[in-house]
Amino acid sequence: MIWDRLRSDLAARFAGLTPPTRSDWIFALRTVSAGLIALLAAYALKLDHPQWAMMTVFIVAQPVAGMVLAKGFYRLLGTLAGALAAIGTTTVFGANLWLLVTALAVWIGLCTLVSSLLRNPEAYGAALAGYTAMIIGLPAFGQPHLVVDLAVARCAEIVLGIVCAALTSRLILPKLAADAIIGRLKRCILDLAAYAGGAFSGGDAATLANLHRKLIADAQTLSEMRAYARLEAPSFATRAYPVRRTIGQLLSALSAARALHAHAAPKNAALIPVRTELQALVGELAAKPDALKDTAPWVTRLDAIADRARQTPDMVAGRGDDRVGAVTRLTIAADFAEALKQVLRGLDALRAPASRRTRERRHPALVVHRDYHAAWRNAVRAALATLLVAAFWLTTKWSEAAGTVILVAVVSSLFAARPDPVQSAWGFFKGTLLALPFAFLVGQVALPALPGFGWFALFVVPILVPAALAIANPRYVGVATAFAINFLAFLNPHQAMSYDPGPFFAGSASVLVGILLAIGVFVAVLPADPWVTVGRILRAMREDLARLCLHQRVPRREAFESLAYDRVNQLMPLMQRIGKKGDAVLGGSIAAVTVGLEILQLRNAQQSSAVPAETALSITNFLRELARELLFGQPGEPQTAIITVARQYATAIAERSDATEMLQIAASLRIIAGAIEDFPAFFAKNGL
Fold first, then answer.
1. Which of 149, 255, 267, 467 gives the lowest tally of CB atoms within 10 Å of its CB?
2. pTM
């Protein structure tokens, strides 16, 4: 019953057939209302371009209040930075248009560079700072005395839209980030329980694969929500760390469940009771809708299961390789129970956050991965594209080409760091093209005949409400946002509307041409291969593991997990829609976290006085060989050597001693060998 319902839910999710929910309708009506309020206020303040106030509402529109505040805050910072840059470049180069556009193109390139090195929402603010300077600076050419007025007007319009969007999202039936994160985390826990139940009982492989992808996608969404929600309320600062660590524990539990499924040993007498208890627990957890109201009983049961799994000397009979295999599976089962317990505790920490953080800070031995190669490529591409189109404009003297220059700057900068910039830009083009006939009918036919704000609202609400509903759906958010903002841009609502199709079609044509040119730039100028980007991240992950093997100082477990899952988060948006090959990459990256944690176990054992010198030397030799394989092993070379060495060391260590420390060392070696065996290409240099 549960499994059938899960399959139907997954099918609906991946087909995009989920109907709008009550919260989606609230979001849509709230967004449209905020836009109308912003436009009405812009009319009252007699702003030059009142449509920008309403457009800003749709640009920053997010279902969660914290996301609106975060995106609005960084949009404001980016607008201010861009306005200051426009004033500076126009003051210095305003007498020469060629120098002006060159300076603006360089500024756009620098902002794109910074944006590519940052994450949302900071990255959005950096990109905005680039093209805002172009939007303000180009119209001020020849009239440098007007640039300050244009900058002030632009900032006023943006601030008005942000204020309206922020106030309505926070005051009118708000959907708070903390509540949204807790709700999504609950769904993730129940999905994890369903996945584990299927993995332990031999469930349908296709359903398990879909659920695996869903869990990873939801973990990515949780990470993004955490980043956006920091500005919602001061109290969320105490919840940020629990969210980050809980995401890591969620993925660790997912990896452990997958490993138990892939390396099942149903006839093992020691593992059967633990596996049975785990299967019963996750089955009950997935079957009860209100199971997470009180996590204490589940935590108690998981503690008992983990303790039983760790009692390896008493639970495992016999010697040799079979015993090591049993100990290894029991260790993975204990890791799963412990990770799931920590996820439940993370849920409790979010529901009842601590008053302050008391954790100590210590710099880890690893470094945060930033793709400088991709960032410089994006910067050069955005600057070059803007400069080339500007040169065409200056050479041909086509008046409408100024809009084309601006759109090329916007698209080539805004979508540069997306996993698939061509697809993102194409979605923006489709939304823009779809908005054109609606804007013509409303702005050129209806409103000139029936002027006034009341008629305006009557005409646009039936159009913008469905657009806002689509924005609430992650599947259509890109196209729907482009439709909404360009519908308002083409409409160009003023208090006195007139029929004038010539400028309307000329301006809209320049916008569409600009987007198409930007898409052409993504395709032809320094084209990005996402697999090259993936390869750089995977190489960084392998180097992290090699550093763990060889570095003199051993980092804390939390430090390694934090940085390792940062790598995984960078891979997620690149891999989500690729299919089976993407699943292999994500599976390998999560397995790499498990390998790193086992390396830390070995490093700590290596330094323990309870471990014999002979065993410590074996650990040292193995870690050196593993580091060599990670740094220099080729995907075409067989990796049986390192796997065989790990298993031989594990068997020898287990045969020399029955002590718990020795058996845990043997289990760590076997877990590392199993991960490399499951994902051989991932752990080889230039693999995948």
1. 267
2. 0.83
